[in-house]
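In response to reviewer comment 3 from the previous cycle, which asked for concrete evidence that the modeling workflow produces usable outputs, we include below a single protein chain processed end to end. The sequence was submitted unchanged, and the resulting structure tokens are shown without manual editing.
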Amino acid sequence: MAEQYYGLTDPGKQRDNNEDAFIAQTTVNGRFVIACVIDGVGGYSGGEVAAALAREAILKRLERPAGEVIPILLDCFNLANQKILAAKKENSKHDSMACVATLALVDLERNQFHYVHVGDTRLYLLRDDSLVKITHDQSFVGFLEESGRLTEEAAMAHPKRNEINKALGFETTLLKDDDYIETGHSPFLPGDVLLLCSDGLTDMATKIEITDILTGKGSLAQKCENLITVANANGGKDNVTAVLVSNDKQATNYDATKPIATQKKTELDITIPPPTPTKVNELTSAEIPAKKRSAWPWVVVIIIVLIAAAGGWQYLKHQQADTPMANNANTDTLAASTPKPVDSIETNLQTMIDSLKGNVLLLTDSLYPKPIKIDKAIRIDKDSLFIKTKGHITLVGDSAYNGAAIELSTKAKMIFIDSMTIKGFKTGIINYNNALTLKRVSFADCVVPVQNEVSVPNNKPVSGPATSLKVDTVTVKPKPSNGATGKR
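The workflow returned the following structure tokens.
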């Protein structure tokens, strides 16, 4: 268990005190990992005090968590906010103190994590050696960087980098603005790693440097030390804090035709454990009883392959009479190739999404130099998918088509689309259960750009915001207490 999480903080090279704080420990008998990074707002008196008060409030609230996870985590931030505001009234020297924070509750048993975030601390997910930034910096410079107006290097050196517009201790209530606290949840698959960190790391170390450390060898403790070392080596201008959580379960490889892919789910389930791996290859060749094996199965396979090849050859000859032959595109790297005819591009795009082995899909305008004409919704059945584009990629609706350009399935948990134009559809994207995040996506001549839907189980009570209803569950029965739980 100790190797599944670790946290470390350092004052850096230019500051005497450390206004950062962190949490890296378990709760509920080891089932959940609490991972949190808190940064006292720099330049304000009492930043260190605010961070300590927030840490204390979060730990106290998570001693006996009960109910839905996101409301519990929001309650942690609300309680921390109240404690900071009360302390500011008691001590005039600390009347400007505040802190920013990112808090994640990792469900080790069910392979998922939930998070809340305010400010410019960050949460990253490392999956398949790819580092994805989950949270959004609530600052002007952060907005410029995420919108593509500033490069990472320019943002790191910007004079207003540390100016934030949201924090714990700024507002008397966090509920008046639904967007004040960022929330979310995602699968936490075997082999995944979470990184929570303060801006003392991300202002001093690039994404490439961080990725190299996280994908390198060594324990979580060693990787935390290496992250702080590189930040200090690059200047160490601020306090540096890093918390790592690893899902060290053995990764399972799934076949493309696994039965679970075709199962129809009648209930919303945000806690799906990974399917039990098939054990067809459990015996080695040495353990198989020595006996002469029949050659007939191989003969049948060869005959089938020859028939299929002959049919494919005839089909290709027929296609060549009408259109030039197109090169095959690698579905994982999407290397540039000669584009297929427009009427087959949609099918090609759907095939690439369905057969993608990882969770990052790169689309380039060299592969799709013309708008992609859609006469059937592109369906995304994956739990997580990051669609990134290079160049100008446009989806256009066929004149006779009245459906959506993209439709998420109810299984989707985190779908991220970066830089795309969706033009001429009755509905641009059908989104289920708040799984969709957009960045630089334009909608042109779409009656409904994004249609948000909610899937609910049959004949079961649900609770939560109307855009993200969940089955009522109680994780741990709370013990009687004189204090209010603040459940919403």
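Residues 254-294, 315-343, 472-488 have pLDDT under 50 and may be disordered. We consider this sufficient to address the reviewer's concern, and the full set will be provided in the supplementary archive.
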